[in-house]
Amino acid sequence: MDLSVLRTLEYHKVQGMLAHRTSSVIGRELVEQLTPISNYAEVQLRIQETEEARQILDEYPNVPLGGIRDIREMVRRAQLNAILEPDEILAIGSTLYAARRLKTFFNNLPLHIPLLTALVTQITVIPHIESLIENTINEHGIVRDDASTELTRIRREIRVSQARVKEKLDSILRSSEYQKLFQDTLVTIRGDRYVIPIKQEYRTSFPGIIHDQSASGATVFIEPMAIVNLNNDIKQLMSADKTEVERILRMVSGKVGEAALTLQTNCNVLAQLDFSCAKAKLSIDMRATKPLLNDNGIVELHQARHPLIDSDVVVPIDIHLGKNFNILIITGPNTGGKTVSLKTLGLFAMMVQAGLYIPAASESKMTIFQNIFADIGDEQSIEQSLSTFSGHMTNLVKILSKVSGNDLVLIDEIGAGTDPQEGAALAMSILEYLLRINSRVIVTTHYSELKTFAYSRHGIENASVEFDIQTLRPTYRLLLGVPGGSNAFAISQRLGLVESIIIRAQELLSKEHTEMETVLNTLEEKKRAYVQLYEQISQGKQQLLSDQQDLSLEKKRIEETKNSIMAKARDAAALVLRNARREATDIIDELKAQFSVHEAKNRQQAIDKARQRLKNSLDNVDTDDEITINIISKGMLKPGLSVYVTTLRQKGTILAVGDKEVSVQIGILKVNVPLSVCVIREEDKPNNTKTYKPTDNSNRQLTSIKHISREIDIRGTTVEEAEVILDKFIDDAVLSNLTEFIVIHGKGTGALRKGVRAYLKSHRSVRDISIGEVNEGGDGATVVKLI
């Protein structure tokens, strides 16, 4: 990519914003080296790295990035056996601590961040060197007294000797013998020796060694003879201290040199982590979002904001390119925002290809360009004696010699600076070439000819920047599909130009220009009408899709209700069968008890007779053959007639009769079923005198509702099954004007008794319940009184 375009689009300012958000020098260096790339896979990795860092900062804003130092040169010198200074060793210790803390932080993150996790695994914690540095150098960059046993001894002796010297000097200063000799009653140091300031005229009266004198010569600094030996001892101890410190620093530097490669790797990883977090911080501060990448040349920016304009004043714009058209021609007045639109797209392309988020609405799409070319502003050079047009064309020649189908071209005021007709012709020819090679292009212009050119070429679209005629101020909004005008007459009139001059200027406009503007306005009005119609159709389509979804949900709900009703019907049928089988077993047991062992033949006959009677009873329950009439023709059916649907095992009412199907209302369901599955029950036939006789569990036979038993036996059932049986029995009892009956449920575990009594207490037709008498079954039975 041509580096000059980075300067033209002010990419370096975005770099500066990013560098400001780094926490270390080495992270800032990565920002300075960051340039856009055109490899799609690498751009994806860069964006993913920013996305992972953004995830971290969204959950944990305070990432521990402090303490990272640029130790690369120090480590390199240590590798060459150089002795590092204490402050340099302290910087290495700080970086080791930062690496250990960051690794612990990332290892404890409950986030899926594969790229950064893989990066952090390269950090090697070196606790022995970190501990060694901590025990050797204090926070002020000075070798600690306890860095070694020898250093501890030396510095202790230095302090003792210094105390003796001060004590001796204090006694000299307090001596009345020397008071008149002192220039000042204080102790100072000259050349690492303790001295006392003595007046010049008394220098021979004070025993000692002269080390210095003041600039005026009035004061000499004399080391008293009484402390010369003590000062000599301190001098020797200071030399020993320096030697020991040098030995310690050499030892620590050697350890650092041994781990040089590991430290260099840690340093690189820390720089990358700092750089990644800086990208995430910038995205948060700019309210930027992740771009959706594609390699199809499609750009769809929604609410795009130029990153270098104050967020409080910038006007968001929408930019589309590469889908329905590859070239966008922007027209409109000066200072309306045309150039900003160009730079917004160019800068966004660079930011994306550098791995940065863009300040636009979510779901914005960006493609990857092989190259980005820009001719923006007046590039004329006085030294090269180039006019505005010459400079402009020089840039275009360079661009056209390099551009290809995967490139982005941004041209400000294409063809300007020369004869309008020739300039417009050149502009149209250049745009045709760029359209032919499939480049993505945005140009700005004032030429009206280019507006009609866009209408006559597929793949080229008009756009304009909005301008408020009333306020004479641009709104900076970019209107796609709408060609703009320069508004010269309106602006001039608003500024106070004489009306007669404006009228004359309008008269001087060529007929062709006026007709062209009229055609453009007509086309624009039609286009707006078509857009409005398209929006209405789109809304209708959305409403239709919504209605289809509602119908699908309703159909699903009806199907679920149908399945539920059928399941309940099957459960009820299974319950009837279980009760019938239990009834059969009980009757057989009673019959067996009525015969003696010696009457085997009579007993077996009675049993067979009872079994046959029960079989007939079950046949009445399980089949409809004896109580129904099969439908033969649709003439027997009419709306309002009650029928039994054999496939659903449900009773319903006919709503409508077709040739092969009938519409039947079954509860809340309305279903269409074949004629062949509808039957008419005997009880539903007109003037039918036969009634269906329900099963009574206590009477052990099928009886009429008019002769319902006063007892019902529900032993052996579950609570759910018992509720179904009792609900039907209570309805029959109410119809038979029965006021009291007994429910036999047995004792057992008590679960059935509790469940049945709770159900009876809440039943709408039950007035009271009580425990049965002893002769009625006691606690194994419940007496129910009906309302």
Outline type:
flat
Q: Which runs of at least 5 residues are low in confidence (pLDDT < 50)?
A: 378-385, 621-629, 687-706
Largest sheet: 6 strands, mixed
Helix content: 40-55%
Distance between the terminal alpha carbons, to the nearest Å? 94 Å
CATH superfamily of the largest domain: P-loop containing nucleotide triphosphate hydrolases
Mind telling me the CATH class of the largest domain?
Alpha Beta
Query: How many beta-strand segments?
Result: 26
Q: DSSP helix count? A: 21
Enter the CATH topology name of the largest domain.
Answer: Rossmann fold
Given helix and strand content, the structural type is alpha+beta
Percentage of β-strand residues: 15-25%
How much is the average pLDDT?
Answer: 83
Strand order of the largest sheet: 10-11-12-8-13-14
> What is the radius of gyration computed over CA atoms, rounded to a whole number of angstroms?
51 Å
Looking at the overall shape, the CATH architecture of the largest domain is 3-Layer(aba) Sandwich
Question: How many separate domains?
Answer: 5
Question: What does it look like?
Answer:
This protein has about 775 residues and is an alpha+beta fold. The chain folds into five domains: about 5-145 and about 245-285, Orthogonal Bundle (MutS, DNA mismatch repair protein, Chain A, domain 3), CATH 1.10.1420.10; about 150-240, MutS, DNA mismatch repair protein, Chain A, domain 3 (Orthogonal Bundle), CATH 1.10.1420; about 290-495, P-loop containing nucleotide triphosphate hydrolases (Rossmann fold), CATH 3.40.50; about 535-615; about 710-785, Ribosomal Protein S8, Chain: A, domain 1 (2-Layer Sandwich), CATH 3.30.1370.110. The protein is built from 21 helices and 26 strands. The strands form seven sheets. A six-stranded mixed beta sheet has the order 10-11-12-8-13-14, with helices on both faces. It has a six-stranded antiparallel beta sheet with strand order 15-20-16-17-18-19, with helices on one face. The chain starts with a helix and ends with a strand. This is Endonuclease MutS2. Its EC number is 3.1.-.-.
